[in-house]
């Protein structure tokens, strides 16, 4: 996920991150605000050279270290989970009226 670091990317919420996590494969991304809290399952880098190095390391990693952690994070953000969370917020707001 090689995002440019600019004004636009300050407000990106990369939904494709969840698709990538669900593959279990290593993910490399440049630092954007939408990736905060995902550093444990995404190699977040600052520079073009670091991005290339991280991709090469991910390709050469072999047995996909961290695969289970990435799959679990994808499950944690599955649409069914998000729908339940949204329903609970709506229910709480309606019941509080």
Distance between the termini: 43 Å
Structural category: mainly alpha
Quaternary organisation: single chain
Count every helix, treating DSSP H or I runs of 4 or more residues as helices: 4
Average pLDDT rating: 89
* Rounded Rg: 16 Å
Main sheet properties: 2 strands, parallel
Strand content: 5-15%
Q: Could you spell the SSE succession in H and E letters?
A: HEEHHH
Q: List the domain count as a whole number.
A: 1
The general outline is flat
Strands of the widest sheet, in order across it, are 1-2
Low-confidence stretches: none
Compute the number of strand runs. Answer: 2
Helical coverage, percent range:
40-55%
Task: Write up this protein.
It is a single chain. The chain is mainly alpha-helical. The protein has one domain (8-95). Helices cover 48% and strands 6% of the residues. It contains four helices and two strands. It has a two-stranded parallel sheet. It is flat. The N and C termini lie far apart (43 Å). 11% of the residues are buried. The mean pLDDT is 89.
């Amino acid at each position: 996920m090689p995002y440019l670091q600019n004004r636009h990317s300050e407000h990106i919420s990369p939904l494709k991150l969840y698709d990538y996590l669900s593959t279990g494969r290593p993910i490399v991304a440049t630092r954007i605000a939408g990736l905060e809290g995902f550093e444990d399952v995404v190699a977040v880098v600052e520079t073009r050279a670091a991005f290339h190095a991280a991709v090469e390391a991910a390709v050469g990693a072999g047995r996909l270290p961290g695969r289970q952690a990435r799959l679990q994070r994808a499950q944690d953000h599955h649409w069914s989970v998000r729908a339940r969370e949204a329903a609970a917020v709506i229910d709480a707001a309606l019941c509080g009226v």
